[in-house]
Request: fold
Amino acid sequence: MSHDHHGHHEVKEPVGWMDRPEAVKRFFIVFYVICGLLFAAEFMLGGAENAHPHPLEERMRFFVYPVYGFLSFWFLVLLARPMRTLLIRSEDYYQGGGRYQGGEHE
Amino acid sequence: MSSLPPFVLFFVGAVLVGFTRGAARKALVLAIPAVGGVMLWVGAGADVAANGAQQYLTLELLGYTLTPFRADKLSLLFGYLFHLAAFLGFVYALHLGDGTPDGSVAGDVGEEDIVGNARAGLQHVAAMLYAGSALGAVFAGDFITLFVFWELLAITSVFLIWARDSERSYATGFRYLIIHVVSGVLLLSGALMLAHETGSVEFGHVGLEGNGWAGWILLVSFGIKAGFPLAHNWITEAYPESTPTGTVFLSAFTTKVAVYALARGFAGAEPLILIGTAMTFFPIFFAVLENDLRRVLGYSMINQIGFMVAGIGIGTAMAVNGAVAHAFADVIFKGLLFMSMGAVMTMTGRTKGTDLGGLYKTMPVTATLCIMGAAAISAFPLFSAFVTKSMIMVAAIEEHHYVVWLFMLFASAGVLEHAGIKIPFFSFFAHDSGIRAKEPPKNMLVAMSIGAVLCVLIGAFPAAFYTLLPFEMDYHPYDLRHVVTQLQLLTFGALGFVTLVRTGVYPDEKRAVHIDAEILYRKLGPWVVKTVGGTVGRADAFVRASVMEFVRSTLGLVARAHGQMGPLARSWPAGSMVLWVALLLSAYLLFYLS
Reply:
């Protein structure tokens, strides 16, 4: 259990791709293009065979999955936020602590 | 050798592991699950494939027939899984006892001992016994044997929590133990009631009809171990409190034994559809808010088990196949995610979203493997959950459980949010925390790599994996519609995440806890005991004081009457008695004469 050989003293300050704004921008461009392509792929599905056809999917054909995926995230977070207001407590709540005293941003 | 129950090798191995050190111990912990797995494959596995279900060992006890080793396709699937999980877990935990890994900065936050080096032997022995107990449980052909291993699962695994050696881990371990012992007691009670009804202790299909309360009691017993709603917090409490390596073992066995028991005993039990759907739904909200990333994975575990429980409730061949296949895949991808978070914890001493970020710069391999686990749990095509979870969802549609299907689709997006994006994003990307820890020890990277490869192998070549499943079915996960719609769901979910973060709506990570059902036994229970105890204590003191006062005053009165100078204690001279007699006789004479 020695305390004298922590690697962070040896590692020189690294630069990652997230430190380069143009790389981050490129990442998001690729991501948005993929979204666009998948949205357009809906039109290919018209004649696509479904190995396990079911009536519900037949009825909810167009753009249901992308819209459902997008809205699910928003619904999840919009419901979780008031839940937090109600349920949040200090980290030592179960050791005798009480209400959460922290700030808005950490 | 095929009649030797698989747990025996692990129990004997645990004793040997306890008496060895260094390279010998490392060789042993790897050899035992590897040899055991091969023996199972060529022994009982080949036998069951050729001749169907087998009972290899039967004993008579108090008029009941016990079957400590029964094998069929269902138990074999879990048998292979537990050998694999034990092997991966021991590869991951191989460095224990070697001292602090090179490049660790855990000591900076006083968490250097978090790796549990000082308790390496204890963890290896406990994990070996724990894996053996899980094997004992899935090959148990009767309830009495199942009960023994059910309790052993709890008793052996609690040492993996205590190995963390902190006040919190001791308290958590005791709560964990109590909850699991209660589950065991319910199991025995239900089994005895069932034996009273049927005259047999055989562990087969139980169901909820025609057996009175026995079925429900057994369901609750299994449900506690499976993390049913309100009984789920042992998962979210214990997993973050164990050591980095301990949690990998914990996540593999207990809940999956429960899923196995439900699949065997309660396939087609309708309430499980609702319970399972609830389990997929509520934990994802807690997972959004939770700061401790291993606790997030605990909630994620409940969410995934929810899919399995619902599948078992639906009860068709495809649904139950989907449930047990998803259990198999879950042990690997959830193990991989717990391993990646354990690697972060080992190297940084931290697991909270608020403390981490930017680790991709110095831990790129761990980050990549974590992302592969995240892709697998999110059910991206070519990864394992895509070919397992979809069976449950197709079965839900085929059985016309449309609302359940919509909830599951929502929960699938939720999985992407907390396990697919949040876990890798907050630990390896997000804001740069400035922590510059190196990659974890090689054995950890090897274990994670094997896990990642298995996630892809199962996902890319499902047909070979499907042959291991217990029931015949005709299912093809890869068609254009399934691939495109799944990619649409996930990609646009991710787009939702991007818009939530960019608009500032996504909630920050906070150093806080969020109240869950555990408040019932961690706050409300103690409060009730304290309040009721206080009231009863005060009433007791009042009654005691009153009685004592009454006794004291009575004694005082008696003492005054009969005491030394009391009127009733004086000695009367004989002359006065003669006088009183004379007076009484005179009075009598007077009355007589008048």
Notes: Residues 1-8 of chain A have pLDDT under 50 and may be disordered. Strands of chain A lie at 88-90. The helical segments of chain A are 21-40, 55-59, 64-87. Chain A is about 45% helix and 5% strand.
